[in-house]
Design a protein that fits this description.
It is a single chain. It contains 15 helices and seven strands. The chain has helices at residues 18-23, 29-40, 46-55, 62-71, 78-87, 100-110, 140-151, 168-173, 184-187, 199-226, 236-341, 346-365, 370-453, 470-489, 496-504; strands spanning 4-7, 91-99, 114-123, 126-132, 158-162, 176-180, 192-194. It has a seven-stranded mixed β-sheet with strand order 4-3-2-1-5-6-7, with helices on both faces. The radius of gyration is 39 Å and the shape is elongated.
Length: 508
């Protein structure tokens, strides 16, 4: 049953990365954004990233930061989502590596009280470049565990919503993990993926799950209501026969429940192994993607060097007289073509021949600068060298790209299998719950039978010197029976001997 929804802050509750916006105050937004992206992708650990980013903010006014914090926009649907959860009596918490100065503004707007963040260190109204808080070196899962322990709930009753690498620990451990416009590494381990920047889509997913849980409970209750009231036999012999039948039924229900629990554990194991494999393949895909991107940077650098050399060659050649040579040569070709293809009177033809000869004399008088020509040759060699580099590096980039695609295709196949295993896990757990309800119903009938038979009243025995006294033994047995009942309430397997002990003391 969903009892708590915990959200990340940046890019989940608010539409943006707070520290990136704060970085604009110190003109270091690009440096901070780069570190933020590496942290979100899981390329560097969060502790290093948060310390490095805050260090860049040293000297920034806290008043200016507060102003920025007050202007940060909420994510679309944030208020409706929080209010919708509260209407269902579901608690809300925020666990974020962001800062209290930002969270306090957001929590005031949304009415969220449970919030865990880091804090800037401030002296004389300015940041010192240091940061403190539970999420500097600790994980979000550590914080979440402390919160649920104090709240008296289990992790399986929690929905965790996040988008970056530092959210993975709590998303993996929560009963339901939701990736909200998240990085690939988060999507791969999440139970639910939401791609729209609208938190009401998250609310819809939660309400759908809540409805499914309520329907399961209602089905169990309906089944219980539909079950006719147990009627005792008319004779003591018949009652004893009923007892034997019910004890066989409850033993069977306990075995079937345990079998479903066994199936659920197996599918959960398969799902978790697949998710682990998914993570490995995704990391490999990301590794090849990063390799490809780095090679492509070298390709672009080589292309720029090649193109720059070609431009210089062209400029040198034109400026050294080649432009004039080409112009004259084109004019000579034009005249020669006219003479060859047209019928001209002798006077006009002679004039064209003279013009062509004059141009040829001009051409002979043009001499290229040998030093310039040598420089052009060197640049041409450089251009060819850089072009070869472009071809070589492009082939390497293509190889890395193909490897990346191969691993991404693997992740798709593994994700499908993991989703199927998770579906089977949910189904088996549902069947186990149904058998547990059946177990409880049969146990109730057995209590009725025991009351009729009077077997719930322990017989008095005289104390002897061979063992514990009667009262002490009864007290120990009752304590043992109470322990068995607590185990039973949690869904633990109960043996026939233990069932009889519960019956003896009419517990349950």
């Amino acid at each position: 049953m969903i009892k708590l929804v915990v959200f990340d802050l940046d890019n989940v509750i608010i539409d943006g990365e707070a520290i990136d916006e704060i970085g604009k105050l110190a003109n270091v937004e690009e440096d901070i954004a780069e570190i933020t992206e590496k942290a979100m992708q899981g390329e560097i650990d969060f502790e290093t990233s948060i310390k490095d980013r805050v260090q860049l903010l040293e000297g920034t006014s806290i008043e200016e930061i507060q102003k920025v914090a007050s202007e940060l926009p909420l994510m679309a649907g944030a208020l409706d989502t929080i209010n919708g959860l509260k209407e269902k009596n579901i608690d809300v918490a925020i666990i974020s590596g962001s800062f209290d100065v930002v969270a306090s503004e957001v929590c005031d707007k949304l009415g969220v009280e449970a919030v865990y963040t880091n804090s800037f260190t401030v002296e004389d109204g300015k940041l010192t470049g240091e940061v403190t808080g539970p999420l500097v070196s600790g994980s979000k899962l550590d914080v979440l565990k402390d919160h649920v322990e104090k709240a008296g709930i289990a992790l399986e009753d929690v929905v965790a919503v996040g988008d970056g690498a530092n959210d993975i620990s709590m998303i993996e451990s929560a009963g339901c993990g939701i990736a909200f416009n998240a990085k690939d590494s988060v999507k791969e381990i999440a139970d639910v993926v939401v791609e729209e920047k609208d938190l009401t889509k998250v609310l819809d997913k939660i309400l759908n799950q809540l409805t499914a849980e309520e329907e399961t409970v209602e089905e169990a209750e309906d089944a219980s209501e539909e079950k006719p009231e147990f009627v005792l036999a008319d004779t003591m012999e018949g009652v004893r026969k009923q007892k034997n039948e019910k004890e066989a039924e409850i033993a069977k229900a306990a075995d079937e429940r345990e079998e479903f629990n066994k199936i659920a554990r197996e599918h959960r194991r398969i799902r978790d192994e697949l998710n682990a494999s998914l993570k490995e393949n995704l990391n490999k895909a990301i590794e090849y993607r990063n390799e490809r991107n780095e090679i492509n940077k070298d390709v672009e650098a080589a292309k720029r060097a090649r193109n720059e050399a070609n431009i210089k060659i062209k400029n040198i050649e034109w400026n050294s007289g080649k432009r004039d040579k080409v112009k004259i040569e084109n004019e000579i070709k034009k005249i020669d073509k006219i003479i060859e293809t047209r019928v001209l009177d002798i006077k006009k033809e002679n004039q064209l021949v003279k013009n062509a000869n004059d141009l040829r004399k001009q051409l002979m008088d043009i001499h290229e600068d040998e030093s310039v020509k040598a420089e052009a040759d060197e640049l041409r060699k450089l251009s060819e060298k850089e072009h070869e580099k472009v071809i070589e590096l492009s082939e390497k980039a293509q190889t890395a790209h193909e490897e990346m695609l191969k691993y991404f295709r693997k992740t798709d196949d593994i994700r499908t299998a993991a989703d199927e295993a998770h579906k089977n896990f949910i189904e088996a757990r549902k069947n186990a719950s149904a058998k547990h309800e059946e177990f409880k119903a049969i146990l109730s009938d057995i209590h009725v039978i025991n009351k009729k038979l009077g077997s719930n009243k322990p017989k008095r025995r005289k104390p002897d010197n061979k063992g514990s006294s009667g009262p002490n033994k009864n007290r120990e047995e009752r304590q043992r029976a109470q322990q068995i009942f607590e185990k039973f309430k949690k869904g633990g397997k109960v043996s026939t001997e233990e069932i009889l002990l519960l019956q003896k003391y009419n517990i349950g």
